[in-house]
């Protein structure tokens, strides 16, 4: 009886995860866009979350690294270090010279790598 109950809970969770994947994706995108716009290097929780996501998933930006060009942080400092593949990377503002910048985008990686962990 108990195993049947656990099985049903897992089944319902999987179905709900599949049904609400688009809502989860939209929510992640909106929250991540807001975090990028409010990013700074002082270490607030949003900036730490962005850095952790980009370091963990080896990505830069929501849809690509150019998402950073619309932020205040970029206009003052260029790309954050969490976009760098290399240890001693000094991200430049000039996109043509982006040696060592992650070109993968975080939205796709977050959804495809962990489709059921997000829900």
TrEMBL record:
Major localisation: membrane
Membrane-spanning parts: none
Cross-referenced InterPro entries: Tetraspanin/Peripherin (IPR018499), Tetraspanin_EC2_sf (IPR008952)
Pfam families linked to this entry: Tetraspanin
Compartments reported by the entry: Membrane
Record protein name field: Tetraspanin-6
Protein family (similarity comment): Belongs to the tetraspanin (TM4SF) family.
UniProt entry keywords in alphabetical sequence: Glycoprotein, Membrane, Signal, Transmembrane, Transmembrane helix
GO cellular component term, pick one: plasma membrane
Leader sequence segment: 1-17
Lineage of source species: Eukaryota, Metazoa, Chordata, Craniata, Vertebrata
Source organism: Prolemur simus (Greater bamboo lemur)
